[in-house]
Amino acid sequence: MSVLDNWGDWKNFLGDRLHHAQNEGMNDNTINDLAFEIGDYLAKQVDAKNDQEKVLADLWSVASKEEQHAIANMMVKLVQNDGTHR
């Protein structure tokens, strides 16, 4: 089963990656830029596996670049308290 199959697992996966990046000293701007690039890749290359991902993909598809950056930044905020190693 992929982490993309379950919204809670996906948020924990992202939370773990976020905490690892922060512990390695990655700054917030770099993290937000990476979140945008990952969001763009997922929206273009990966089929949504659950309803939440479908909503995000639909929003991403109609958003401007500035709005896509805002979505990516909100995803970072959403998962900052998630993860298995809090």
Describe the structure.
The chain is mainly alpha-helical and 86 residues long. It has a single domain (3-79), classed as Cytochrome Bc1 Complex, Chain D, domain 2 (Orthogonal Bundle), CATH 1.10.760. 72% of the residues lie in helices and 0% in strands. The chain has helices spanning 7-23, 28-45, 51-62, 65-79. α2 packs across α3 (51-62). The longest helix has 18 residues, at 28-45. The radius of gyration is 12 Å and the shape is globular. The two termini are 23 Å apart. The mean pLDDT is 89. It comes from Mangrovibacillus cuniculi. This is DUF3243 domain-containing protein. InterPro entries: DUF3243 (IPR021637), Uncharacterised_YmfJ (IPR024702), YmfJ/YflH_sf (IPR038292).
List the helices and strands and how they pair.
Elements: H1 7-23, H2 28-45, H3 51-62, H4 65-79
Short description:
This protein has a single domain (3-79), classed as Cytochrome Bc1 Complex, Chain D, domain 2. It is 72% helix and 0% strand.
Ranges with pLDDT <50 over ≥5 residues? none
Under CATH, the topology can be stated as Cytochrome Bc1 Complex, Chain D, domain 2
The CATH level-2 architecture is identified as Orthogonal Bundle
Instruction: Give helix % range.
Output: over 70%
Return Rg in Å. Answer: 12 Å
Q: Strand content of the residues, in percent? A: under 5%
Distance between the termini: 23 Å
Number of domains: 1
How many helices? 4
Helical/strand content category: mainly alpha
Briefly, what CATH class? Answer: Mainly Alpha
**Total count of strands:** 0
For the largest beta-sheet, the strand count, sense and barrel status come to: none
InterPro entries: DUF3243, Uncharacterised_YmfJ, YmfJ/YflH_sf
Pfam families: DUF3243 (PF11588)
Protein name: DUF3243 domain-containing protein
